[in-house]
Amino acid sequence: MSMEAYALCPRPLAGVSDWQAGLDALGFDLQLRGTTIPPASSGHLPAVRRGRASGFECSIVPFSELKETYPETDFAGSWPCVYAFWFGTIAESIGALMAITACVTSVGGARLLSRGRSLADRRSGRPVRARDGARG
After folding, report:
1. Sign of CA dihedral 90, 70, 7, 39
2. Burial label, 23 (beta-carbon count in 10 A; 0-12, 13-18, 19+)
3. 53-64 residue pLDDT tens
4. What integer best gives the mean pLDDT of the chain?
5. 49, 56, 77, 120: most buried by Cβ count inside 10 Å?
């Protein structure tokens, strides 16, 4: 079964080194192995955690598409850059969730799990901003 999650951002990350710096600053043991990130690329983003593959799918999607897919969700504003993540295995999910947390912490965004449920408050459907519990 495939899962999806989103990083809602006011701007895209500058590049792989920017994203890796965010992971390192949080103390996450995830090494991005790709040379480009969305929007310059789309699809599988290779990553390694503890010597094992922990890559995931990552693309940028239009915010309007997200609002249409999850009409009941309060997105707490408009987001110019939405990174979509898809993952299936436990290793992929750990890698993706670390990458999402580093992404939103770096740019001051919010994160959202599939089905419009927030990582912090699964009942409200309201996204969690990075300042409200980035390590969660």
Report:
1. positive
2. buried
3. 999 999 999 999
4. 83
5. 56
